[in-house]
Amino acid sequence: MDNSEEIKIKDESEKTKKARVKLRKRLDILERNINEKELEKKVIEIHDRISRHSALRVVLKRKSISLFDNNENTAELSKKVNLVAEKLKEDSLIFMQSINNLNESLKEHLIIPKREESKSLEEDLDLLEN
To answer: Which residues of the chain have pLDDT under 70?
Structure first.
């Protein structure tokens, strides 16, 4: 692009500038409030909330929960995934049938020398190559 063809971007409006300054001040205040003492305070609040609601917690007796259980407790497949899997299965069967049909039709069209005319497998291969 030539300099004459460049699109000029307008300067920010006063309203946008004021909003940007206001947001920057808010972020500065928030960043100043994040310190080790405030983090420890939040941790205590979280622990208190967990202990307050412990009576409502459901106790699992049949299953144990871990972060990753090697897919022992997998979710059921959705209808859409089941449909796609069935379609793939059907398509693969059709494909395999067509491959088998192709093999049969190729067998009919191949000319294979009789065993008595050739003496070894190498000679058979040479005949096929020529």
So the answer is: 1-6, 63-69, 107-130
